[in-house]
Amino acid sequence: MKLKNLVGLRFKERPADCVIDSHALMVRGGYMKYVGNGIFSEYPVLHRITAKIENIIREEMNRIDGQEVLFPVVMPAELWQESGRYDSIGNELVRFQDRSKSKMVLGMTHEEAAVHLVREYGQSYQQYPFMIYQIQRKFRDEARPRAGMIRVREFTMKDAYSFHTSQEDLEQYYAKCYDAYNRIFQRVGIPEVVTVASDSGMMGGNISHEYMLLNEVGEDSIVLCSECDYRANMEAAENIVENISSNNLAALECIETPDCKTIEDVCSFLKSDVESSCKAVVYQKNADDAFVVAFVRGDYEVNETKLRNLVGEEIHPAEITADSPLVAGYIGPYGISDQVSFYCDNSLKGIDSMVAGANKEGFHYVGLNLERDLENVTYVDIAKVKDGGICPCCGKPALTIKRGIEVGNIFQLGTKYTKSMNMQYVDKDGATHNPIMGCYGIGIGRLAASVCEAKHDEYGPIWPISIAPWEVHLCCIRPDDEQSKKVADDLYEELKKHNVEVIYDDRDGVRAGQMFADADLLGVPIRIIVSPRNLKENSVEISTRDKSVSDRVEVASALDYILNLKEKMYSDILNV
Amino acid sequence: MKLKNLVGLRFKERPADCVIDSHALMVRGGYMKYVGNGIFSEYPVLHRITAKIENIIREEMNRIDGQEVLFPVVMPAELWQESGRYDSIGNELVRFQDRSKSKMVLGMTHEEAAVHLVREYGQSYQQYPFMIYQIQRKFRDEARPRAGMIRVREFTMKDAYSFHTSQEDLEQYYAKCYDAYNRIFQRVGIPEVVTVASDSGMMGGNISHEYMLLNEVGEDSIVLCSECDYRANMEAAENIVENISSNNLAALECIETPDCKTIEDVCSFLKSDVESSCKAVVYQKNADDAFVVAFVRGDYEVNETKLRNLVGEEIHPAEITADSPLVAGYIGPYGISDQVSFYCDNSLKGIDSMVAGANKEGFHYVGLNLERDLENVTYVDIAKVKDGGICPCCGKPALTIKRGIEVGNIFQLGTKYTKSMNMQYVDKDGATHNPIMGCYGIGIGRLAASVCEAKHDEYGPIWPISIAPWEVHLCCIRPDDEQSKKVADDLYEELKKHNVEVIYDDRDGVRAGQMFADADLLGVPIRIIVSPRNLKENSVEISTRDKSVSDRVEVASALDYILNLKEKMYSDILNV
To answer: Which residues of A touch B99 (CB under 8 A)?
Structure first.
């Protein structure tokens, strides 16, 4: 198509409200428009990209025997009451009443709808396994939408649900899907995406993986081992700490530590190491405000996700008042009120002599040894991994922490939904069971933005050819020059005839600089420049957006050159 | 794919809650599943059909220079407040509050979102004309969803919006879109769809057309002329009535008509013709309950849409109480209270001597002549056309009334939205104007169901090949027979190799009758039956779902036969 007809404005100034590059470039390039908090419309440029991403995903889902279906955006509350999530999910789930006062929800995920769709179909073991998926809009009322398309409230998602009669069968399918996802990320041009073990959160189930694009603007912390293949989301990464015993236990002693309410204060006052101090972090259960104290070594932080999983219910940072059975700033595991439950992190194990709060205003214990002084101490893993930490896989102190954008996830759900929603099949012996589920998600818009974040320069995105809005950007920089116009027009027609997707800039009275700036913002991989100067030598200029190619090519050879270049770019993507 | 893997159950019994055939067949065939009132999930079979319909629509929209975009399902109320529709639309528009108590709506149409997307882009006349469209889910909280996919609450719709700088330009584009729609209906296999002039309703604007599939189960009444091309929706059809004057005016007389509260009672009591009686139908304005009386000739019905357009605001059937300034059963235009507004229909014009209520309990006037007895009588068109009525186009008494399903609509919106939402462009002389809009909709699911309603027999749908879930249905009715299985397997592989979409039924232990019943429910146009009996003669059976073809074909020629048949079926669709 001709650029002059393309709906969407391009401009130079970086919008003040864009904190990450992909967002700024996609606003500046006329890809998206803000409609409301976390809600955007897509201009034609972005729609062309998302349509290509969707088709790649569709092909890969069909290749692993997925069958495309469609679930509703709006669902009756009953469906979510069946699974229990109508009550257990917070206000990310939009609830409203329809005209007849029936309670409805907006789909933020579709496990319930999937089980509902196949509950009758899946009554015999002979129907298994099967997988259904959809590509559909979802609305999740996020508290803090951010970073353009990275975290929004309304988004298009591919969500897939597989059903199995055994854990082994699920695991086999899960492995196929794991590979399909890797192919998807390769095909959209970000083969560098890594998988990490993750926490399943509210989805239920056990084993799950996230596909992470390592990138500074990501919201997730990823733990990677530089010595082996270990990778995990911070929320799921096991933290291993080895304290070396001096075999020299001091006596337990309660001493006055006036105005020492922080670990730093206490260590400085007592001239002790932070590594032999005990830090208390206090939470309350959402349900009844009961106190839960997490004790970790002074130099570690609490991993709330792990703690929450251990407690088995929702918790929030505590408010300690004068009435509380806790003395803020002086909380320690020895002598703590039996009205509170507490957990001791692995990082405290094996510390000979520890400094810890004495549960008494202005006092700490020194010489505390948990194994000796507490009855039945149990250690649990509730701390965050640190840079340089010990790898749970190879055992070397080689962990590093990076930021990542989650571009996909896969979950082994187990029977959480089939049990609660009473989906059963009869096996070949006539016995009934709940099928075992897996689910597999990719956010389309976030993936587009992530590719942009990974592949751009200061002038615009550098789209991989497989998802670029067009394959070729043809600039006729002097359309008032008769020869230039004719050569460019002819090339345009020839390229279209050969099924090349071309955006053709033949705008009158637009400076070459403006044309190039626009081309940079559209990020089309192959660029052709037709100009009177080049035509004097009977050639056109052909270059790539990533600057790896920049050639003068004879007019007569231009078409073949481009067809070859295009083919090479596609095969390069598959041969990474 | 293999039928045994297809997700979705097929069954024989017609569901009790299905009032129309397409709904019953699409439930019985595993196309759709009820989720809630007017809300369905789509199984893979239906999704394959809707995907094909969407692609046909997309091609035709692109062909008339449409650019695909995407608007959000959820929008902030502010956007709809700008146009005024947040307040003017009833409870079909779902309104809710998000987690931060901001007012939101669910998109039931996207004029506001379209204007919002291009308001800045369209600031110069040089950008015009342009058209943007999307294919997206919508939710409209219908009071009475019915007939399966025909009238639902959540649906996928293609909605397009064009922008112009002159009425002439809009009309030119409108004509292009008019043709594109005809191509779409031809390509999906229902070229018999007709266009009718329609009322624009809440969309605003003037000229509009609906595309109607004439069908008994339709909700719309269509007025057609058997002598010329005139076609209109009942809501928009002009009603012409000619009363022949006898030039013999009687004197106005008020006479007692005890217990005559209906037209029939009065005519019978007075032995007069219904054609010289005056019927009153009473409404109230929604805003202030003020009475509005519509007078029509006794044998006509009031067309509420025309009346509503004339009144210029929402009205509802009146409740007449003892306090009302109206005497129920005895309401007439002569001597009516000046507290009520009234309208006299064209059908009353030229009646010499009329019977009409005397606005007094138990009394009617006879010999009423409106021109003589009322001051300044004006006649308006507020009655419904009747069978045999006069065609407003050719003037012959040749109107007939049929039922139709609306499968698409196109509107000339004018500046309703660009004015209210303050979208302006600067023309080449520097003056500012509001652009002129058109909008163009097609409901995808309703179109699929309409094709099914138009093309089915008692056993299942007869899908046109262009939108059929598969092109070929291959039945191996004795997969336990080695030769049958091999011939069928080979054909399956060959057909796939030649890009034929095949559904292959090689289920073991399923009776042939069951296989054929399933094939009928899937409605695939070409069927191949491989059986030991046919193979004795080295042939397979090839037939079409519409029964126009039924042949025995040698195994070796089967592939070519099918490829030719397939090609012919596609070209037949385009050559209707």
So the answer is: 91-92, 141, 143
Distance, CA of A125 to CA of A145 (rounded, Å): 43
* Backbone φ/ψ region at A201: left (φ over 0), alpha (ψ -120 to 50), beta: left
Q: What is the pLDDT of residues A79-127, one digit of tens each?
A: 999 999 998 888 899 999 999 999 999 999 999 999 999 999 999 999 9
Q: Which domains does chain A have, with CATH numbers?
A: 3-237+401-453 (3.30.930.10), 253-380 (3.90.960.10), 470-574 (3.40.50.800)
pLDDT at A481 over 60: yes
Backbone φ/ψ region at B49: left (φ over 0), alpha (ψ -120 to 50), beta: alpha
Name the closest residue on chain B to residue A30, using Cα atoms: B121
Amino acid identity of residue B255, one-letter, is: I
CB atoms B98 and A102 under 8 Å: no
Of the ranges A335-339, B59-63, B265-269, which is most confident? B59-63
pLDDT in tens, B336-364: 888 899 999 999 998 888 999 999 888 99
List the single residue in B44, B75, B132 with the smallest CB-CB distance to A69.
Answer: B44
B91 contacts A99? CB cut-off 8 A: yes
pTM: 0.89
Q: Which residues of B touch A35 (CB under 8 A)?
A: 71-72, 75-76, 79, 113, 116
Cβ burial, residue B538 (10 Å; 0-12/13-18/19+): exposed
d(CA A308, CA A316): 9
- Select the residue of A48, A70, A79 nearest B42 (Cβ to Cβ): A70
Question: Chains A and B: how many Cβ contacts under 8 Å?
Answer: 168
Residue B135 tokens, joined: 């294919």
Q: How far is B117 from chain A (nearest CA, A)?
A: 7
Nearest CA of chain B to the CA of A40: how many Å?
7
CA dist A85 and A341 (Å) reads: 27
Overall average pLDDT of the A209-217 stretch: 92
8 Å CB contact of A141 and B44: no
Q: How far apart are CA A222 and CA A234, in angstroms?
A: 5
CA distances, B26 to each of A141, B238, B547 (Å): 35, 38, 20
Among B63, B73, B135, B156, which would you mutate to test the A interface (most chain A Cβ atoms within 10 Å of its Cβ)? B73
Assign B362 to helix, strand or coil.
coil
B411-448 residue pLDDT tens:
999 999 999 999 999 999 999 999 999 999 999 999 99
Please give the distance of CA B434 from its chain centroid, rounded to a whole number: 30
Chain B: closest CA distance from residue A165 (Å): 15
Confidence (pLDDT) at B324: 85
Are A121 and B7 in contact (CB < 8 Å)? yes
Q: Cβ–Cβ of B41/A117 closer than 8 Å?
A: yes
Instruction: Point out the residue among A44, A100, A153 whose CB comes nearest to the CB of B67.
Output: A44
Strands (E), A220-331: 220-225, 231-233, 253-256, 278-285, 291-297, 315-317
Q: Which residue of A has its CA nearest to B94?
A: A98
* Alpha-carbon gap, residue B485 to B490, rounded angstroms: 8
Of the residues A5, A45, A67, the best mutation for testing chain B's interface (the one with the most B CB atoms within 10 Å of its CB) is A67
Best to test chain A binding among B13, B27, B33 (most A CBs inside 10 Å): B33
Asked whether the beta carbons of B133 and B68 are under 8 A apart, the reply is yes
Cα separation values, A370 from A253, A313, A347, A376, Å: 13, 27, 12, 9
Using the predicted structure, report yes or no on whether residue A421 has a pLDDT greater than 60.
yes
Predicted complex ipTM: 0.89
Give the SS3 label for residue A320.
Answer: coil
Buried b (16+ CB within 10 A) or exposed e, B342-367: bbbbbbbbebbbbbbbbbeeebbbbb
Contact flag A136-B136 (C-beta cutoff 8 Å): no
